Amino acid sequence: MLVGDARVMRDxxxxxxxxxxxxxxxxxxxxxxxxxLRAYSxxxxxxxxxxxxxxxxxxxxxxxxxxxxxxxxxxxVFPEQWRVGxxxxxxxxxxxxxxLGEIMATREDISVExxxxxxxxxxxxxxxxxxxxxxVAKSPAGDQSSSEPHVYEDNGEPAVTFTGxxxxxxxxxxxxxxxxxxxxxxxxxxxxxxEPVSIDNDPSLSVLASSTDLLYQFRESLRQCAxxxxxxxxxxxxxxxxxxxxxxARDVLVxxxxxxxxxxxTALDDLKNICLIVNTADYxxxxxxxxxxxxxxxxxxxxxxxxxxxxxxxxxxxxxNTSIRALVAGVETMCEPAFAALTQVPWQSLQMVGxxxxxxLLISSAMEACTETIRKSMSxxxxxxxxxxxxxxxxxxxxxxxxxxxxxxxEVGAEQLLLDAQALKSTLMGMPxxxxxxxxxxxxxxxxxxxxxxxxxxxxxxxxxxAPSDPPDALIDxxxxxxxxxxxxxxxxxxxxxxxxxxxxxMYFRILQRMVKQTESAASSERPNTSRATVVDTASNYxxxxxxxxxxxxxxxxxxx
Length: 561
Hints:
two-stranded antiparallel ribbon
């Protein structure tokens, strides 16, 4: 307690400063602060419960009581410019910072809740001190390019902010917060994984509700971290975001992809769910860019180049590709009954060519129903185009495989199949328009090329089968015309489909080799002999490297004999 007239003591302080200087003033203020804070270390001893993180608010309440006593009893003694109340708060902050650092260093059971609560109270205290002592941060006048604000008193004099005075002690232990957030997100992902799509599907959304819940928690976590630290902990938190999104893409999105069977009664609903997963992955990938930008804005300048969400963005795109392949496989499965019907037709004994076969209508109906459902359910047009491209390529492969399992096919059967193939080609060409306003959408050129090439191979095969196998030259002429590179596997396939006996096939291969050589010779003689390289290059257009590869054993033996 100070004894005496406050006004006289105030004047004495001013005289002491004038005669002894600022150094003595500072020593006197320090002595007063130590005197007032003498009881602090006695009350808040390191091992006492009152000193632990969960009771940190008691520390700040104690200081507020000391400042209230100072304001009531001693403020009139000291000159205002001495800022004794601020000095008290700074000495308290230093002592509290050191004590908290020692406490957290010796404790192994710090809970996330206690750590975050203590840090939040500390940040609030530091903000109150800045406000109480009129310390503000603003950009320096005339320096608009500076990104770091300077700290001033309300009178414009430079000052030291209270921000970080105590909270800096928490920085080494922010990993506890990061681990806590990781545990929380992992539990959310496990919960989402256990839930069926029917629960995760919100009819008011075009994405899974779990994605919006997870990303909302990311934003809240980032906001909390930004209020606590913008250094390495924020970088670590961004890495947790990225890893959790990778897990979400793999363990939730891909995990929930349904397997569609030809007997499934919920096939169209399953296709809708796959589209929902595509929409969700696309939504997450777009939000990731915004999240990355927000982290870069908030994190300290020296850490900006460490922020990267590339891994989770790649994982989400991978889940989209996997989902589109699941769509293609699902629609192909819906067409399987029609392909089964194709293989049951006796193509070898077909007597006449009629209208398109029944399996064509089955395939067309399945394709149209599935594709219209996919278009209505998928929010991104680029992914619908990707589905169309992949399905067109896969359909041609599956159609060719079905033809190969039909056994022998007569010329009449090949003609009927050719008619069917042209009808299916027309259906495929219209796939990008199914379920859409045909006046507003055009078939992409790239898609037309995929269909033309895929179905073109089937048409070429069937046209080659149309040629009679006797005499062999007629069949081989047609084959070389349709397949200039004369692939061995395709020629073998044609011979098998036409029912040429294995014992007779070597003769066909010998004739094919002879005719290929004649073609190469004719091509060489028609070119002017200006350059040997030109002749070689021209002849290579008619060469057949496939014929030099491995050959079926019965064919090789027949040729060598």
